[in-house]
Design a protein that fits this description.
The structure is a homodimer.
Chain A lengths: L5 E5 L5 H10 L5 E5 L11 H15 L6 E4 L2 H14 L4 E2 L2 H11 L4 E6 L1 H6 L1 H9 L4 E6 L3 H6 L8 H16 L4 E4 L8 H8 L4 E4 H15 L12 E5 L6 H9 L7 E3 L6
Helix pairs in contact in A: 1-10, 2-3, 4-6, 4-10, 8-9
């Protein structure tokens, strides 16, 4: 039994959907979240810059006595996971590998779709990982650059003509390809999963990146005997690198809780 | 007469609408454009970081023998204009001052609206400048965070339900306030001026930031006898700090020209 907290980081606040999944799947664990809101988005940065940022994010989180780290950021998972794992003596879970494993497991017709940001689609990371796991699976990708700003503007409800029109345009080509599994490859997309599900229909299984990381972490903690006391209720602390004023509104949106959360600011350049 | 080029910079490619205005208003001038696409958006950076970035942008542009500089970026105009003017021995024009002067001139009922990004609205720069020019003018502001991503996704046509729904929601409160002048305080907004005009109606005058900077620069060049030979056709060169591959599509969108443009990449951190 180990009640030390788990660190979670992302380029911004989208990673709070991973916090939401972790709270559902591992409710007894303490979490420390860091969102690098001053340097968001990571998607367009060079590999060297990304590794520098990711190392700073990890160093800040490790100023606490952690037992594990979840990288909620797809871009960091793609570019820097193995380096961070080699440099740190604690379990680190990314988002890409667990998500691809799940997609390969659930597809029957071996046709998997991936929707993500332009940067994630361009990285080819999901396709490479799926090819490594099962070379017979075809992956169809679609970049959905408007989903993040629309979700952050709170346009996440069924019946909203704006999100529904945009979603239909992005998803119709996926449907035509006959996929039976769709990876939601961005932290923001679980919030519009009901709308995506309506468009794709009941025969397409949705796989959310954040959720799969939480399951992977649960397995890892169990295997290494690192789980917290299951009778307790875990807590969460939140840190951001830019102004904290917007945090409450956005956090409520992503965590889907009525709770009011406060965040503290960190000067991440010092780490 | 002075045929040396004019430098123009912005945090990204939105400043190309200023290039478009400059080409219409000063067609004989040569332009050198720099878009800091690797470090966009500037809106959320600290003042120190912004000044550092702006100095690098100016240093890069001044590696050419320029006669003037236009800052197409609202955030830099707001935070760093006077410092840059003090440090450089050539005319530098921002976007905020010329735009506010124009708005104060055209309003009859002294009710002016401002639409812009969240960062520009929060800065209070337009309100402060207008109050300085005419303290009887009331300014009503509305942040429109979805306009930039929608424009960059090419959703700029009348009849598009997505842009029209979003625009109506942002602009209805402005209309209810009875403004007679609306400042388009972001480089991207001129591209949807027809849609904004439809919603606001014929009695509201639209004032575009980029266009007013071009008029201001024209006056300045004339006063200092720096204008180019009016019988020539000016040229434009384009530089960006991130990948050049997207430039062609976006440039055609912003410049509203069928011409194909190529951009070269600059390592801006070296300046």
């Amino acid at each position: 039994m180990d009640n030390r907290p788990i660190g979670v980081f992302d380029s911004g606040l989208g990673g709070l959907t991973a916090v939401r999944s972790l709270r559902q799947i591992l409710p007894e664990e303490n979490l420390i979240y860091f969102g690098d809101t001053a340097r968001v988005p990571y998607g367009s940065r060079s590999r060297e810059t990304l590794l520098k940022y990711a190392r700073q994010d990890v160093r800040f989180l490790r100023s606490y006595d952690l037992k594990a780290i979840v990288i909620a950021c797809g871009t960091v998972s793609t570019t820097s996971l193995s380096t961070l794992q080699a440099e740190n003596d604690l379990p680190i879970v990314g988002v890409v590998e667990p998500t691809c494993s799940r997609a390969v497991k659930v597809t029957n017709n071996k046709k998997v779709g991936l929707i993500a940001t332009l940067a994630s689609v361009r990285s080819g990371a999901y396709e490479a990982k799926i090819a490594e796991l099962d070379k017979d699976v075809s992956v169809f990708t679609e970049a959905c650059p408007l989903f993040v700003p629309l979700v952050e503007s709170g346009r996440i409800r069924r019946g909203d003509v704006v999100i529904e029109t945009v979603a239909r345009e992005y998803l119709e080509p996926m449907k035509e390809r006959g996929i039976d599994t769709l990876i939601l490859g961005c932290t923001h997309y679980p919030l519009i999963a009901p709308i995506i599900g309506d468009i794709m229909g009941p025969d397409v299984t949705l796989v959310s990146a954040g959720e799969e990381s939480a399951f992977e972490l649960k397995r890892m903690l169990k295997a290494q005997d690192l789980r917290a006391d299951e009778n307790r209720q875990g807590d969460a602390d939140f840190y951001v690198s830019d102004r904290v004023e917007d945090f409450e509104r956005i956090a409520s949106l992503f965590l889907q809780e009525d709770l009011r959360h406060a965040a503290r600011r960190v000067d991440i350049e010092k780490y």
